[in-house]
Design brief:
By secondary structure, the chain is of the alpha/beta class. The protein is 24% helix and 22% strand. The protein has a six-stranded antiparallel sheet with strand order 1-2-8-5-6-4, with helices on one face. It has a six-stranded parallel sheet with strand order 11-10-9-18-17-16. Helix 5 packs across helix 6 and helix 8 (324-340) runs parallel beside helix 9. It is elongated and about 70 Å long. It starts with a helix and ends with a helix.
Amino acid sequence: MSTISILTTILSLLSIASAVPFTPSSTDLFLHDFSKRALTCPSSDKTYYTSGTKVFYIGCNVNYAGNDMPSPNGQAAGSLDACMDICAKRSGCVGATWPLNTKKCWLKKSLSTATTKTDVWAGKLQSTSYVQGKGKRGLAYNNGAWTKYFAIAGQASKVSWMVNWYSKSTTADFTAAAHSKLDFVPMLWSNASDLTSVIATNAASAKNVLAFNEPDQCGGGGSCLGTPQQAASYYKKYMQPLSTSTRRLGSPAVTNSLSSSAGLAYLADFLTACSSCTVDFVAIHWYGDASDVSGFKQHVQNAYSVGGGRKVWITEFGCASGTVAQTKDFMRSVLPWLDAQGFVERYAYFGVFNQYQDNWDLISSDGSKLTELGVLYNTM
């Protein structure tokens, strides 16, 4: 037996079972980079880990003896976060321990008093409580169930609102209830009669309403409403009546096309044609390369100028090209910048999906949890 093996054995035998405090407090912070997602000790000690809608409080060198769940149990798990994911999916699991030497996940049906044990890591299930984050960040989603992976107590989430391209938080295709605490913002996607006929009713309690989605684009998700002047006529007919002293209206959300008949040029012409309209803030979209941080920032600043000093909402933005790692770097650059700009009121990354493309999806491919991008967007 090597000297290292002997020392390891001695340390294992000397592991004591004294009671240790293991209760989250309001001063606990996210002490590691959650964009990396992997839990490691000691950097992950006294942090929170989210798997789906469940939150675990992480402890290093902490053990919960006994109270194991029935088989299957003790499965191999390559990491502590993988172990927490197993617990999150198992009905009745309230926590788990993960010995570093065996890398097996021991699920618990109840938790004994936490004790100190070297190289045993553990997670303790917290009660799930939904909150509204204190930030500008929003969720662009279809499936309301996935919005519940964000803005959970203990996450320090910055997500505060959500949008789904419709005037209700659920649709005929996606009936799952959405997050109960986030501010849902209705949208009148186009001038289609099945949308205009319900917007007043569906937006009755809304504080903000978004107008047409990419009227400057035909195909690719655009509402294709013709010229800016035509879009202005639809706005006057369907959006203007929604304006009240307590409800604000957003402009049509234009693309970042550089064409003279689209993008910010379209927005400028729309505002001229709708000079008598109530347009409280301007909405824009941006898609580009993950390396084009300066181009993104300049486009947002240009939108503020074109909007005549109105606040700016970026209701969709994303990296059309670039790896996940490059997209994470993009987020690290632009999210703090957006938060710091007084003229930027709200923004939403595209999006809360699981099978578009890796550098867009904030949800894992199986729909069970946040991706690395999702975790970063939720809390950074």
